[in-house]
Amino acid sequence: MAETAVDHAVRWFGLRFASERTEREYREWRIATATPFARIGYIGSMPSWCLLLVSVVVLDWESVPTAGPPIFGWILALAVLTALTFPGAARPWVMPLAAVANCAAGFLVIWLMFDVLASDLPAQSRAGLMTAGMLIVMFFGFAIFRIPPLLAMAAVTPYTIFASLHLYEDHQDGNLDDVEAGGLAAAQWIAYLGCLLVYIVIEIVNRRSFCKDQIIRVQQAELQRSRDAIRRYVPPKVAERIVRGDTVSIEEPVRRRITVLFADLVNFTILADRVEAEVLTTVVNEYMTTMSEIVADLHGTVTEFAGDGLLALFGAPDELDPVDQAVAAVRAAKSMQRRIPSLNEGWLRLGVGEPLAMRVGINTGVLSVGSFGSRGRMTYTAIGIQANIAARIQSQCEPGGILLSDTCWHLVKDQVPCELRGEVECKGVHYPVRVHAPLTLTPVMS
């Protein structure tokens, strides 16, 4: 189902999508994008805890038995939590674990600063250090970890209340006056509300980023579908140029020396009258697919399908040396003929009464190559007398055979042994065209 503008409608001041499906997709997206932030948060906080542990050992040895084990255990816990951000199976638990970790860190910081490390300091200094440490942890909970809203509040609120209770106790014990206790408590809750506001802004921005990502994803999918559709209806090498925006090289017809291959199934018209349309469709599609793949593997381009016949060009749109294109065309023809028996095995099982045979004619010459047609529809092909010669040669070929024009033979004779098969009269040509049949292909030395 494609995304629409309705899918991205929001409510609750932009903090929730109206569509439940979109909301579920957003939550999955948020987990995927927030996991690296959780990992960074864990890794970034570990040096601070290590530094705190070293400071306790160096500066306050008496506190090591009390503070050392919890700090060291917390460093190990951070290492484990970092490792859990990597496996895909643990991904759904990354955000809940981040919330639990932030809550635990908040309580640990408050306890260390208030009851252990700063217990000998004046109440004002102790309360100030506790508040400062708590605010750092609070910032991680709301801004760094990208925890979902309710989880973030569930993580931060308990230790904020815990810190305020410590201030209240100090106030009740007379260690802090009204201004000091009230000021620090106000600072804690103002910071809480400020971080919550920042978090809300981040959440709204995240949802907008998600919408943009979804739009880009849909556009990319539509673009890929368009490209795939182009490749289905246009020769692959021509499609590549269209996708790249390089249409100039294929639009204007140019005169070029290329090699043309015509192939045709013998008695296909009779077959079409005998078999069901579905069987005929299967035969044609398998035949065209197989032959097109062979041509493409040898750097050729199939430009036209006409019933059971196909036209392939070697040397357009990608230019090739005349010898290379002619040899490639002959090799393609030989490979095509070798595939016919295996295709016939499947066709006979479909109910095709007799094995089919193919004829191939090849000619090399100068043709007009480019896009021909109307503004509404263009076809990339080659036209000219040399193409007609290739078609005529093919029509005079024996079933299962390959014939080359004399021009093509001169280009391949050093690599392809051939034998002369006489002459062919071609309409529009004032002289008979000598034709040759390839025997075997000599291996190409690399």
Automatic annotation (TrEMBL):
InterPro entries: A/G_cyclase (IPR001054), Adenylyl/Guanylyl_Cyclase_3/4 (IPR050697), Nucleotide_cyclase (IPR029787). One of its GO terms (biological process) is intracellular signal transduction. GO terms for molecular function: adenylate cyclase activity. The keyword Transmembrane applies. Pfam families: Guanylate_cyc. The chain crosses the membrane at residues 40-59, 71-90, 97-114, 126-145, 150-169, 181-202. The keyword Membrane applies. It comes from the Bacteria. Residues 259-394 form the Guanylate cyclase domain. This is Adenylate/guanylate cyclase domain-containing protein.
